[in-house]
Design goal:
Largest sheet: 12 strands, antiparallel, barrel
CATH architecture: Beta Barrel
Strand order of the largest sheet: 1-2-3-4-5-6-7-8-9-10-11-12
Length: 164
């Protein structure tokens, strides 16, 4: 499954649609303004909140938390620093599952893996539309909403880090 995201630097209060490869809106990323911490909601076409994304307060390093139905689903933080590639660790709430996100985040060229197996590829290479990137969910049994939320989080964290 491939999804298209109109790229813009995420700011608080920004809203944008994530489309399927036919141009139909599938998910709405709703940035919440007037909050103490960065907060986003991933909604379906009916406006139902599928996933909440928020910045974790009082963390030693920038951390984002993904929740579904008010329950923690995953925590995302920077793994290590490299000059050419960024690495983020996604710890799922079950405590034993970790996803690895690595690549050139700011260039929108990165992958999400579990135990060395590719789950999703985020890339601008397939597209000819400026300021758009694709989220290609490789595994059919993967959760597209979670993988899109992970992409939104790591891009947001990388953009914040670049600003600082």
């Amino acid at each position: 499954m491939r999804f298209l995201v109109r790229d813009r630097i995420l700011g608080i209060g920004d809203d944008y649609w994530i489309e399927d490869d036919h141009g139909n809106g599938v998910f709405l990323v709703d940035g919440k303004a007037m909050r103490l911490r960065d907060t986003f909601e991933l909604k379906d076409t009916e406006g139902r909140v599928l996933i909440d994304i928020r910045q974790k307060m009082f963390a030693l390093r920038d951390t984002m938390v993904i929740e579904r139905g008010g329950e923690p689903l995953a925590t995302i933080r920077r793994k290590r620093l490299s000059l050419l590639r960024n690495h983020y660790r996604v710890s799922l709430a079950d405590g034993s599952t970790e996803l690895d996100v690595s690549g050139r985040i700011l260039d929108r060229e990165f992958a999400v893996e579990y135990d060395g197996e590719l789950l999703a590829v985020i890339s601008r290479r397939w597209l000819h539309v400026r300021e758009t990137y694709g989220v290609d969910v490789v595994r059919e049994d993967a959760d597209p909403a979670l993988l899109i939320a992970v992409a939104v989080c790591v891009i947001h964290l990388a953009e914040k880090e670049r600003e600082e």
